[in-house]
Amino acid sequence: MTENDFKDIGILSFGTRRMLSLAILQLNEILDLSSSELDVSILSSAHSDSSSTSSSSAPSSSRKISPTVEVSSLEQPMHQSTPKSKRSFSYTDSMHFPIVRMLNEHPEGPIILKALKEKKYLSRSEHCVMMRIVVTFLTHHCTMYPTAAQKEALARAIVTELPELKYTGESDDEEPLSDDTTGDSLKKKGGTNLEGHEHFYNKGHGCIEYRLKTVRLSLPQKDKKRKRMRINLGGNSEEQPEPTNVTPSRDLQEEIEFMKYHPPTRENSTSLKRAFRATHSHRRIYISQKTPSITDVVNNYPRLRDMPELIHIEFELMFPGKGGEFLKKWGSYYRERLISVAKHESKSIQALVDGVDPGNGDLCALQVLVYMLHKSKRAKGDGKHAATSRSATFNYLLQFRPVGSDVDSEAERKGEEYTQPFLLCLRMVNQLSQFFIVGDRMTIPAGETLVEAVDVLFKVHYIFNVAYAIQLEDVYEFLAVNVFKIVKQKIVKPQLARLASALATTNINHP
To answer: Which of 120, 135, 286, 444 has the smallest set of CB atoms within 10 Å of its CB?
Structure first.
């Protein structure tokens, strides 16, 4: 019954619920009229649809707005009294976000556009400013809890209007990463399944999601949504593979015994390498299933310690064609670009490259990489690890001792906090002379140059199946994804994508 029906039977006053219902209908009519400022043609189409329906259904049909509506004013918020179920009446999941215009109309926005025009990438501080602007716009028009489609639409709009910020996982001077398991369609894209916007938002991760979590911290407790609980209905979601027999055959055992009890000489070097290759499959099964310590593996395969070239052989058997990637790319691509990008970062990073000695370029670039991918938050493991500074984090990668020091004694005296492998360097004044890997309070020779040593250190983590140091997770992941290309990213970390994009867009003029 309508209000006219009630009047006909003599009811002239209405209760609270009826008055509220009428107020909502009137409000919807006002909002429908205001939507004409967004798109006149869409409004006229909606009006023609509404004229063919009854008066009671008119407000509902007139709210069907095109999914490509463009916001008419950045300062025009949605009506705050609109019911929650109808608040996105003019901002559908595929709404268009005018990124460049919102930056131009913000006091700090032109600085971001100028930086992109000059450098083709954003520093960390500039990136944070841009995210603050676009996420504020998102929450202003789509509530503090926008839908996943709205967040993805914003991410796509950013890389569409600012293509310099697109990240596809490939650098300019490298061949595309191929992957036989991804299909022909992905091979045509260069072997990756990234569209370029994933570091801004992808399935609950990315800069937009992280910024939203920060903004929501200021919300009153009553306005915060509860996190959903994941309930296990019993059983494992994935079937566990059956364990493989780790007992070697008689022939393999003979090869293992031969390597174990025959120190390397010029005469038997070739035979030791042949035996090492022959036992590769058994060794990988033993390490993956028994999870032995570095000391246990070296006790069973002592040649890994006195024949460092076996580390490169093992890694190449695990990842064919990837063993030389770091040595090939570091000097020709990454070193100079890292130093160039550092000049536009924070003062602490700029200080690393100010007046750098050309002879220390490798050390400087490595410090820049650690500083830029430094994890300042507390890391969780078996217990809670205190947050470390950037300079302290570098000690988890490289430590120095004077020439003449007993490296075995230094390994025995290492700090309890250094549980994962790291480099120990013997140096005299400013000259780096020799490097060792310290793991389980034992040392393994790692070469005479810093680049060789970092290459060996990275490979040791995979050969001995040990985890990265928590403080260096992003550094090692950057090397695995962007340099060695042995890991496919399931989740694109924004800080890794930002650095990779900055390096790709940096121009280096070689003499």
So the answer is: 120
